[in-house]
Amino acid sequence: MKSLKKLQGLLFFTLLLLVPLCKTFSQELEDTVVQRLVPETFFVGDTVELLYSFDSPIDFFSGIDPNLIKENKLVLTTKFLPFFSPEEKFDVRSVSLSHSGTTYTLSLSLVAWTVGVIDISPFDLNQLISISYKKSIEEEVSAPSYIISLKPFAVASISERMGSLSVRPPVAPLLLPGTNYVVWSLIALLVFFFFAIIFVLTRFPRIVEALLNFSESMELLKNSRSAGRKLKKLLKKKCGDADFANEWQVIVKHYLSARFSISFASVTSSRLYDVISNLTGDLISDEQENAVMTLVSLFTRTDYIRFAANSIDSKLEPAEDHLAAFSSGERKSLIYWTLDSIRGLE
Questions:
Q1: Is 319 helix (H, G, I), strand (E, B) or coil?
Q2: Tens of pLDDT along 158-187?
């Protein structure tokens, strides 16, 4: 019995010695944890950075791909339950963990949406890292828990800071000199645009028709100018009379095809007048009719030069009337009459 009492006394004395040591160790651990806000005072809608520094022998970066670690810093997920506020008091925008030796710093960037105290629930840092980098269940279970307990912090009130606790009545808008003139000018401009839009809408079909006619006129002008350039270029070309006549017909038929929106490639010289008359409904003017007749005669002449070479007709007398070749200066006259006919058709 005496020995039992001595043992109990010894245990009690040992406990008395250990309690102060435990308190001292706990105080040393608390001293290694530093929490601060940047900036220290912030208001609703401001972005604030919460920095939580602590010392730990645990290597929180172990098992993570080194390529994901940038300058001793891990970027962690914000999709973590303690970072969600049911009352929407705050919004966590980014989370990261950095270290220098055994000193770690957890950084939370957040925006506060209400005035008052924000208290983030304690959480396991290793669990946060496992979720962020999708570690396996075995790695997550083997990792020791490390609880982070952030101290509550307050969001300052601008009204209390400014010493104003009541909402002031609205102030009437100030008018600058000349504002009335600007306002009336804008109103007049809007009225003008309103009537302009009505005018355009009421005459929209006519406007569209005018635009289409203008577009068609430009296409016809482009077509006639293109034909004129090709004919002048042909006049300077050195080639036989038959080749000259053939190229002339190709150019003019291409012009007529674009002018009347129908192919003239297979239209013979004898049917040229009838085809154009049918296309225009016999409503062509005298000038246009003269132009068509001139083109028919020119096609007849070029057909003779193309096909009558070395024929019996080409050897008849007088030779100048039956020769299947252009006389001196006839090529130039042919181009001149063609250009004049094109102008007449336009």
A1: helix
A2: 766 665 555 556 655 665 666 777 888 899
The share of the chain scoring above pLDDT 70, in percent, equals 78
What's this model's pTM, rounded to 2 decimal places?
0.41
How many C-beta neighbours within 10 Å does residue 237 have? 10
Q: Which residue has the tokens 């009541």?
A: 166
pLDDT on residue 246:
93
Cα torsion 245, 250, 255, 257: sign? positive
SS3 100: strand
From residue 188, alpha-carbon distances to 40, 80, 134, 178 in Å are: 54, 58, 65, 16
Which of 128, 125, 129 is CA-nearest to residue 148?
A: 125
Task: Tell which residue, 292, 286, 259, 260, has the closest CA to residue 274.
Answer: 292
| Beta bridge mates, 95 | 76, 108
Which of 152, 129, 124, 147 has its CA nearest to residue 29? Answer: 147
What are the tens digits of pLDDT across the range 96-119?
888 888 889 989 898 888 888 888
DSSP string, 248-301: HHHHHHHHHHHHHTS--TT--GGGHHHHHHHHHTT---HHHHHHHHHHHHHHHH
